[in-house]
Amino acid sequence: MKVSLREIHGPWDAGWVLDKHMLKSTYLGDDAYGHAQFDNERTDVGEATYQLKYKSDWSQAERLAKALANHVYPKFKNVGLIVPMPATKTRRRQPVTEVAEELGKLVGAPVFAELLLKAPNGKSLKDLSTKQEKIEAIGGSLSVKDCIEGDDRYNLLLVDDLFDTGASMQAACKVLSAYPKVRKIYVAALTWK
To answer: Partner of 19 for a Cys bridge, out of 43, 75, 120, 147, CB 3.0 to 4.6 A?
Structure first.
C-alpha cells in the first residue's frame, strides 16, 4: 500500500498520519432524490479506509494495520498498549477498532478497546466544519474506564481513521493524560482531510 506520511502536532508526544484521504472530488450533479453525486479519487489508504468504513470490507483492516505497522509504529518508542478512538456511530463492528486489533496482532501489543469511552451525543464530527464546533460537539463526552490491572504506567498509541482539525484527538489526549496509568501518548491516523 502506497503511503505519504505526515507528522501531526498537538498535545501528544508524537503523531503521524499515513496519507491524505481524497485526491480529487468532482461534482457530477444531483441524483433523482436530490442528493449530490461525486466522482471521488482517493489515495490507496483513503480508498481502503472508505471501503472499510462504508462498504464493510473488513479485509481492509489488515491492510491498513500492516501500513501502520510498517510505516508509523516504528516511529514510536516502547508502545505498551493500543487504544482505538471510540466511534460516534454505533455499528456491529467498529472499523477503527478492527484496525487497532489487527495492528495489535502484528506488533504484539495489547489492545484496550474499552479504555476510552464516548458517551452518545448524536453529533457527527464529519458534518462540522470548524475546530471550535468540533470541540463543542465533543464536550465532555469522552471518559476513561479503568481496565488496566496493576499500577504500571504505559506508553499508549491512540488510533483513529481521519485527522482533520485534531479536535477529537486533543479531547481524547486530555482525558487519557489524566489517567495515572498512561506515561506517553502517541497518535496515529489512517488519513488526513
So the answer is: 43
Predicted confidence (pLDDT) per residue in 17-65, tens digit: 999 999 999 999 999 999 999 999 999 999 999 999 999 999 999 999 9
Residues 145-172: tens digit of each pLDDT: 999 999 999 999 999 999 998 988 999 9
Cell output for 183 = 506515561
Q: Which three cell numbers stand for residue 5?
A: 506520511
**The residue type at 34:** G
Residues 6+ apart with CB under 8 A from 152: 80, 181
Domain positions in the chain: 6-18+64-192
Of 157, 173, 156, 168, residue with least CA distance to 193: 168
Q: Which CATH number fits domain 6-18+64-192: 3.40.50.11270, 3.40.50.2020, 3.40.50.150, 3.40.190.10?
A: 3.40.50.2020
Q: Are strands 182-192 and 14-20 parallel, antiparallel or unpaired?
A: parallel
Query: Helix 59-67 and helix 95-107: axis angle, to 10°?
Result: 50
Measured in whole angstroms, how far is the alpha carbon of residue 166 from the centre of its chain? 10
Tell me which residue of 114, 112, 111, 109 sits closest to 73, measured CA to CA: 109
Report pTM. Answer: 0.89
Residue 50 to residue 123: CA distance in whole angstroms: 20
